[in-house]
Amino acid sequence: MRKPKIVILGAGYGGLMTATRLQKAVGANEAEITLVNKNEYHYETTWLHEASAGTLHHDRVRYDISKVIDRNKVEFIQGTAVEIKTEEKKVLLEKGELEYDYLVVALGGESETFGIKGLKEYAYSISNINSARQIREHIEYQFATYNTEKEKDDTRLTIVVGGAGFTGIEFLGELGNRIPELCKEYDVDFEKVKIICVEAAPMVLPGFDPELVEYAVAHLEKKGVQFRIGTAIKEGTPEGIIVAKGENDVEEIKAGTVIWAAGIRGNAIIEKSGFEAMRGRVKVEADLRAPGHDNVFIVGDSSLMINEEINRPYPPTAQIAMQQGEVVARNLAALIHNKSELESFTYDNKGTVCSLGEHDAIGVAFGKKMVGTKASFMKKMIDNRALYMIGGASLVAKKGKFNVL
Ligand SMILES: Cc1cc2nc3c(=O)[nH]c(=O)nc-3n(C[C@H](O)[C@H](O)[C@H](O)COP(=O)(O)OP(=O)(O)OC[C@H]3O[C@@H](n4cnc5c(N)ncnc54)[C@H](O)[C@@H]3O)c2cc1C
């Protein structure tokens, strides 16, 4: 009998979780499982702010996919998906194509610039290993160049971070530690460096407990970060950004580095393939299938689920992506085993911890608020747990964070 073909697109948190759980739930003779990913490695997206600031080497952030999958059960293809032809049950790759009976789309998200002019062209975004490396090297280049020029251009030492959400704040936390190192390394006066966070919303870290936000802001300000809250970026330019606070209060901020960390949308393939989507994210059914597509599951940043309590979408997180991956693996196993009833996904919010550099953080875990080294310890445990869930103790031993003091 022909084995059903399962194709998983993307080996991030959602895709790898699906693959590693599925390989345990079905026998080698029961299904043909193929995992496709752009690179032969998985990267911890949640650690990319560290690689971008240069506080953690990018090789620490990634590991070989082949090390965590059972190659007797899962075939890995390094390839780039281009489009999904749902009617033909096919995925087009840059090189070749794949047929499927069941598909899992776990391609992650992309930076959303909300149509703000010039941001795509002139701002960097923390998206993957290569963009993180580029940001780190760009900032270093600015510092290295500063003192070699006869006429000093102070704007080389200005870094603007667009967005005071989770990613922006975590990146600022790393910069707070990295900038003094760079100043020392390149003989730059710390007083000349400007780190400016521009946020359109009236507060930092919307949705976080106000007391924790206050702690984070005070911590980052002490490290030299200036906050421009209630201020919208109107345009990115080759020289920096144009911002506005109210209608008439328009200002140009010249900056050698602009990082856009304020928005995320689903992978472009979603819309290209004709799925109904909101900002590239598909509002999935309770069992994580795409509406109208009984054989297509979508997880992670390319999916969207509504938090019924507040009638707003859950923010896209690794925590949700991993939990979805577990449910999809069980639902695929059920389909393979001819069970008609599929499990509905319920989000189990285990808390959120936002780092503020290597040894500080804020967060809520197990229903308790925490700050400082305690929260930082918790953050590292969360990071290690994500490794453990996918690759077990050996992966934690290789890639885990043990700098807990
Ligand atoms: C700096 C930063 C910090 C964050 N911190 C946290 C945090 O502390 N906690 C938390 O829960 N969430 C955090 N997040 C959010 C979290 O990282 C994402 O929600 C999560 O990575 C989504 O998982 P995913 O499986 O959907 O996608 P990803 O983990 O991004 O994986 C997508 C995979 O698909 C691959 N891919 C993309 N396009 C293609 C293609 N065309 N063909 C083949 N492969 C492709 C990519 O290479 C990648 O391997 C953070 C995000 C950032 C950027």
Automatic annotation (TrEMBL):
Give the UniProt keywords, A-Z: FAD, Flavoprotein, Oxidoreductase
Keyword match Phosphoprotein? no
The family database entries (Pfam families) matched by this protein are listed as: Pyr_redox_2
Name the source's superkingdom.
Bacteria
Needed cofactors, names only, are: FAD
- Residue span, FAD/NAD(P)-binding domain: 5-325
Q: Spell out the InterPro entries in the cross-references.
A: FAD/NAD-bd_sf, FAD/NAD-binding_dom, NADH-Q_oxidoreductase
Q: Which residues form the signal peptide?
A: none
Task: Look up the coiled coil feature and give its residue ranges.
Answer: none
PANTHER family registered for this protein in UniProt: 64 KDA MITOCHONDRIAL NADH DEHYDROGENASE (EUROFUNG), APOPTOSIS-INDUCING FACTOR 1
Family listed: Belongs to the NADH dehydrogenase family.
The protein in question is named NADH dehydrogenase
Natural source organism: Cytobacillus purgationiresistens
